[in-house]
């Protein structure tokens, strides 16, 4: 890595103020950022790295006002073992337990997992060899290049630094996103509270809608009603130290309300609204589960290389529904 | 004795680890400028030198860590990883560099009781923390059964990834003194061995556990 300044932030205010300056980046566990710095993927190298882990009081796990409140600095390993999380939202604990590798889980955080940048190999190519739209360039190289791991729901369009519209088909592979999306969690930042469905975004060097200097402080999961069943499943090529190609979270609430969330298929994690509508109020049968799988990929526009993901989604949705 | 049969002088290796820990500079008497190699007697002189000679450059930061039970005061550049500081500043070469991207586990150390990839941790983040490396495990008699079992089961070929596996195993046994084979596989799932010694690791750890629980070493 090349030299940068380092700040151990003592408070949220100090971190926010430092991060509003140009050339400052936030770091918690460093699982995402340090690799990016070593490969020097960005147009500009940061001048300051702000260590958020020294901010006190952001790593709590507690039930407050009918919500399970998870601090942004909760370590994924702690989340996966925590009794409260296991009891209230087992699929969030399962997702945390499958993320990365044991040693990384002991040091990477919930907030970092949600804010991680895409793993697109053009975006991540060392020394910024592909100056893509996500970094302020003109085009998305994955659209015409090798896009086997990219979006099956088309590109995300966003405004680049030149004011023009740009597209990107990199997917969001945050391990915890589908589970939190299916449980309709909300994300508390240093400035506002957002439903998690509005939290993810596509922007320049960003996978969230956070403004400069805005930090995630807490994720709140409304306590699911008694009798809710839920499951999380990922498909990855390796069992460990791998990002999910597709990950699926399914929850069945009492009264046959279904919630299905998909990650790894679109630029932002998405709810399978068509599948949920199809299932709503009905008792589950194997035929219905298969139909829900079909509905989950309704409207998909796979590229020539990634239609296999549709089969993965269909099968994972069907299996998880039937397993509950 | 068993270990010697396998062609490894284990006592020598452990003595070497002890010597490395003893040789760690507890406090740097001389602080060297990383840019021009000029030497100073204090951190304050170095920062003054930076202001005068290298304006606009990132000055090193002061750092205190407890490494293998010894307190260390260090002056390091903020962009150095914990692995680089252990190797370059403290001479502890047990944590190995392989992928340098947090994907292989060869550089695993124990930071404040948690297994940690030292290549994916900034040293500047570790101020005031406790680090335990494979050298610290090698000199601790409590973990001798684990090292013996690794040698007896030959749970290595080229040996480059072994320190990472051993530290991950120790971190597991700290948390769970009686792991099942599944627990072991899960705990070591972040370590990669290109020689493919994986089955031997769980065998070695399971055997070490039986000896450690019984409280006797097989060689005794």
Keywords summarizing the entry:
heterodimer; A: 324 residues; alpha+beta; four-stranded antiparallel β-sheet; B: 220 residues; DNA polymerase, domain 1; five-stranded mixed β-sheet; two-stranded antiparallel ribbon; 7 strands
Condensed summary:
The complex is a heterodimer of chains A (324) and B (220). Chain A is of the alpha+beta class.
Given helix and strand content, the structural type of chain B is: alpha+beta
Biggest sheet: strand arrangement of chain B: 4-3-7-5-6
**Straight-line distance between termini of chain A:** 47 Å
Output mean pLDDT of chain B: 90
Number of helices of chain B: 9
Given as residue ranges, the uncertain stretches of chain A (5+ residues, pLDDT < 50) are none
Strand content of chain A is 15-25%
Helix content of chain A: 25-40%
- Order of SSEs of chain A: EHEHEEEHHHHHHEEHEEHEEEEEEEHHH
The largest sheet of chain A is: 5 strands, antiparallel
Q: According to CATH, what is the topology of the domain at 2-13 and 137-214 in chain B?
A: DNA polymerase, domain 1
CATH homologous superfamily heading of the domain at 2-13 and 137-214 in chain B: [2Fe-2S]-binding domain
Strand content of chain B is 5-15%
Q: How is this structure best described in words?
A:
- The complex is a heterodimer of chains A (324) and B (220).
- Chain A is α+β, with helices and mostly antiparallel strands and 324 residues long.
- Chain A is built from 13 helices and 16 strands.
- In chain A, strand 4 and strand 5 (67-71) form a beta hairpin.
- The mean pLDDT of chain A is 95.
- Chain B is elongated, with a radius of gyration of 19 Å.
- The model of chain B has no long low-confidence stretch (mean pLDDT 90).
- The interface between A and B is medium-sized, with 29 and 33 residues.
